[in-house]
Amino acid sequence: MSGSFTAEPSGASTWPAPAKLNLMLRIVGRRPDGYHELQTVFQFIDRCDRLRFEVREDGLINRLAEVPGVAPEDDLTVRAALRLREATGCRLGANIRCEKQLPMGGGLGGGSSDAATTLVALNRLWATGLDEDALADLALPLGADVPVFVRGFAAWGEGVGERLVPVALPEPWYLVLSPPCSVSTRDVFMHPELTRDSAPATLADFVAGDVVNDCLSVVRREYAPVAAALDWLSGWGGGRLTGTGACVFAVFEDRADALRALEQCPPEMRPFVARGLNRSPLLAHMDTVS
Ligand SMILES: C[C@@](CO)(OP(=O)(O)O)[C@H](O)COP(=O)(O)OP(=O)(O)OC[C@H]1O[C@@H](n2ccc(N)nc2=O)[C@H](O)[C@@H]1O
Ligand SMILES: Nc1ncnc2c1ncn2[C@@H]1O[C@H](COP(=O)(O)OP(=O)(O)O)[C@@H](O)[C@H]1O
């Protein structure tokens, strides 16, 4: 997959921003600032937004493609670029073109991944020389999910998802359904009936099959298209919610079985099949440009 993200003769280069799945998500408490303490397992999938960067000598950060509903100054790619420039004192700028493939508000972390890819790519293209820890520190204020995309390894996550321990997981095939609605992470975390006091679990519990997502019952109740997608997946071994949704997924050992289910899935659920990855396509791409 990384072969398609090569440097281009014009001096521009195209980089992948992969999606993630939360294979489980427990809410084990709440911090004084209102953020929720989580336990989650992140794995990447080989479905990506594509970001094209061109270095500018004049210091401007220019967004070249619209992201529907997102003003340039709110775009996480632009915010990430400005943050990196401010932190390093770099005087260069960039044209950034984001080709969205990942549904927004889907729980696939597309916006967070776009931000992480921008940090990693511009750190390289601007030669600003920050190490992985420094980039992860810059990443967190952009969103709780951004650090895992910067680090690029499937992980057990705690805190708001910033305390990350790499994990080696099976890399199955997933059938992912993207029901026709957008779920606001903020609204789910504000919901009065959200479970906020789950007993902490361990990685061993997850491996033994404890794959609860504490957002599920609230999201299922509030978003009928998500409930319909979960009901459809119940015929395929059961569905899980990623993050706060709206996307749901089922797990398959064999690609052929995932494709069979894909064929039968109603198109309005915008299904696709993707491979689970413990190492992000972003890291694979970095190997090709070093
Ligand atoms: C739930 C998760 C699980 O991976 O994923 P998504 O479903 O969004 O993809 C993440 O923790 C989401 O991370 P991210 O999407 O970066 O969230 P942020 O922009 O930081 O937060 C959006 C809002 O959600 C609430 N929020 C977020 C994370 C958290 N641990 N507790 C919270 O209460 C806060 O109100 C915050 O203002
Ligand atoms: N480049 C971007 N791509 C997607 N969303 C962005 C971007 N920049 C800012 N956002 C905002 O981030 C929100 C969350 O996006 P996303 O990461 O795709 O969903 P989720 O957090 O549910 O996985 C979007 O609804 C949008 O308002």
Automatic annotation (TrEMBL):
Name of this protein: 4-diphosphocytidyl-2-C-methyl-D-erythritol kinase
Single Gene Ontology MF annotation: 4-(cytidine 5'-diphospho)-2-C-methyl-D-erythritol kinase activity
UniProt-annotated binding residues for ATP: 103-113
Keyword Transcription regulation: no
Keyword Nucleus: no
Name of the gene encoding the protein in the UniProt record: ispE
Protein family membership: Belongs to the GHMP kinase family. IspE subfamily.
Keywords, sorted A to Z: ATP-binding, Isoprene biosynthesis, Kinase, Nucleotide-binding, Transferase
Domain GHMP kinase N-terminal: 76-152
Pfam families: GHMP_kinases_C, GHMP_kinases_N
Active site (record annotation): 20, 145
Function: Catalyzes the phosphorylation of the position 2 hydroxy group of 4-diphosphocytidyl-2C-methyl-D-erythritol.
Alphabetized Gene3D superfamilies for the sequence: 3.30.230.10, GHMP kinase, C-terminal domain
UniProt domain GHMP kinase C-terminal: residue ranges: 218-264
Catalysed transformations (reactions): 4-CDP-2-C-methyl-D-erythritol + ATP = 4-CDP-2-C-methyl-D-erythritol 2-phosphate + ADP + H(+)
Domain of life: Bacteria
Enzyme Commission number(s) of this protein: 2.7.1.148
One of the protein's GO biological processes: terpenoid biosynthetic process
Pathway membership: Isoprenoid biosynthesis; isopentenyl diphosphate biosynthesis via DXP pathway; isopentenyl diphosphate from 1-deoxy-D-xylulose 5-phosphate: step 3/6
